[in-house]
Amino acid sequence: MTTATDARRHRVAARACVLRGDDIDTDRIIPARYLRCVTFDGLGQHAFADDRAQAKGQHPLDDPRFAGAGILVVGRNFGCGSSREHAPQALMRAGFRAFVGASFAEIFFGNCVALGLPCVTLDEGDLVRLMESVELDPEQEVVVDLEAGSVSCRAGTFRASMPEGARRQLLDGTWNALAVLLEAGDAIERTASTLPYVGGFREPARS
Amino acid sequence: MATPRSLLEKVWDAHAVRELPDGQTQLFVGLHLIHEVTSPQAFAMLRELGLPVRFPGRTFATVDHIIPTASQKRPLADPLAEEMLQALERNCREHGITLFDPASGHQGIVHVIGPELGLTQPGMTIACGDSHTSTHGAFGALAFGIGTSQVRDVLATQCLALARPRLRRIDVTGKLAAGVYAKDVILAIIRRLGVKGGIGYAYEYGGPVIEAMSLEERMTVCNMSIEGGARVGYVNPDDAVIAWLRGRRFAPSGEAFARAEAWWRGIASDPGCAYDDRVEIDGAAIAPSVTWGIHPGQSVGVDEPVPRPEALPDAERTSAEEALAYMKLRPGQPLLGARIDVAFIGSCTNGRLSDLREAARVARLGRVAPGVRALVVPGSQEVKRRAEAEGLPELFREAGFEWREPGCSMCLAMNPDKLRGDELCASTSNRNFKGRQGSPTGRTLLMSPAMVAAAAIRGQITDVRELL
């Protein structure tokens, strides 16, 4: 499971969709009423449900020029707010396999990694160039290359950043943390036994 | 002398099972809290993998997000809500996990009941599939909001793979003025540092204002750390924490309590420990705060006008324009006097007994204004019982407020408590995001419980200092 070839994420090459705006929160990505469920199935169709209803067909996710996009290009602090994994689950089920933005909220970022979805950041100038290029020519292929640490489009190849630990997990196919955590075996119980509260403070603490 | 260490370092190192090849730490989780929204998929994944729950005694469950506040009677009126509660019951039963359901007498918002039951203790690592898990940092715990895949990881291994955050010390100096509360302090902190200023950081709150706060007030501050981008926020444990824990159901007792106390005190940051960043905020300069926008960083003192986007830094301008258009507010207009439709008092931010008392102190001065719908939702069954013992429900009802059953309610409107159309809501909750309170065009103004009560009885945004 840890080194399965199919779990490795080296690059995502796909058409892109540009979603402008900063601080887009997870309530907007998937409104809370769609969280009344016990599985993630079917969430894809509800991604950005309220924003899309209000945009009356003008939302980028409803723009036929972006139909079938696999990369979502966003602004600053994307995915802020609630920890709901339903947000990246909905976007993944709507077809997105990678995110490129100015910055990402921490829990959203971690949830994406746990699903094997890279979130990479570009310098703001490069991000603007990428957004303009994709809006001008949505048919083009955009490449998020984790190995090279870059995002390429017709306007050029830009240096992309991602915290090294997360990048390694995606490259090595170890982003499914469960397999890695299970490998620790008894070390988990050994650590637990050194924590005085785990034993209810019944014995004097070991120093 | 050993090198002085921060609480973050001490707790992190004590819970580190091992360093992972990618540079992250495998961290043991001392307390895992679950609820009905973010756990069912995690249990399904475990089932698929054929894995048991590794430490069932270290996970506790409750139902809060979807529970109706009109009546908790089973079956719940909403079949989807009933299905979610049944799934939680089944999962807890199957894996031997303690569930605080409505029949237990201890149901409530997960971040209210953890501290109430004494489950939340200093020096612990705590995780919950909910971003407001940072609340538990008020006790000197490192508490992480996590996603559902991580809920699965904790169930299966009692561990998380995490990178250690940097540490920012935030000192709130001086003394708060009358009518200024913990909610105003955290809104002021987020206004100053921004909604993404805390990304990659843990916040350590301290200084005279924080030290003078009760545990319930500290919870309000730590609760909204995530709104400033910081996944973790904490206050060093002190006498107040020890006093809170004494006699609580899951706290140690007798000699064990004395041993616990020594360990808890020892986990606090040592004087002179290193911080990656330090920020000082003048507590005396904080006014009762109100948000005007669509994220919690967009707030002003109640006597300040709504900002003009052109006067804001470049990076905030577009967001401010979008916010004002959504909120139907004009640049430069005063917030004072804005007519409200709904008043909501509750949530994991401000649904505890002291919050209800502060709201009641103002509510008794008048009656809910005509045309305003006002809800008081206690954070837990225990909060409700204690409020009843003090006569708060009668006081609220006489003033025209609805007194409800405990739950998350209109903070995120996963139950029937929702705004309608573009109603304007004075709310003690934590998020003023677009559509957050259940109507896609609903508008939220975040403020303290006293300010919400003042808005309810005046029917408009009011400076609570005029009433006190």
Largest sheet of chain A: 4 strands, antiparallel
Number of domains of chain A: 1
User: Under the CATH scheme, which class of chain A?
Assistant: Alpha Beta
- Residue fraction in strands of chain A: 5-15%
Shape of chain B: globular
> Could you estimate the helical fraction of the residues of chain B in percent?
25-40%
Low-confidence stretches of chain B: none
Can you tell me the CATH superfamily of chain A?
Aconitase, domain 4
**CATH T-level fold name of chain A:** Aconitase, domain 4
Q: What's the β-strand tally of chain A? A: 8
Structural class, judged by helices and strands of chain A? Answer: alpha/beta
Number of discrete helical segments of chain B: 16
The CATH first-level class of the largest domain in chain B comes to Alpha Beta
CATH homologous superfamily label of the largest domain in chain B: Aconitase, domain 3
CATH architecture of the largest domain in chain B: 2-Layer Sandwich
Question: What would the keywords be for this entry?
Answer:
heterodimer; A: 207 residues; alpha/beta; Aconitase, domain 4; 4-stranded antiparallel beta sheet; 8 helices; globular; B: 468 residues; Aconitase, domain 3; Aconitase, Domain 2; 5-stranded parallel beta sheet; 16 helices
Task: Describe the protein's architecture and organization.
Chain A has 207 residues and is of the alpha/beta class. Chain A has one domain (5-199): Aconitase, domain 4 (Alpha-Beta Barrel). Chain A has eight helices and eight strands. The model of chain A has no long low-confidence stretch (mean pLDDT 95). Chain B has three domains: 7-162, Aconitase, domain 3; 166-237 and 267-285, 3-Layer(aba) Sandwich (Aconitase, Domain 2), CATH 3.40.1060.10; 289-466, 2-Layer Sandwich (Aconitase, domain 3). In chain B, α2 (40-49) links the parallel β3 (31-34) and β4 (59-62). The N and C termini of chain B lie far apart (50 Å). By secondary structure, chain B is of the alpha/beta class. Chain B contains 16 helices and 19 strands. The longest helix of chain B is centred in the N-terminal third of the chain and has 17 residues, at 79-95. Classes of the chains: A alpha/beta (207), B alpha/beta (468).
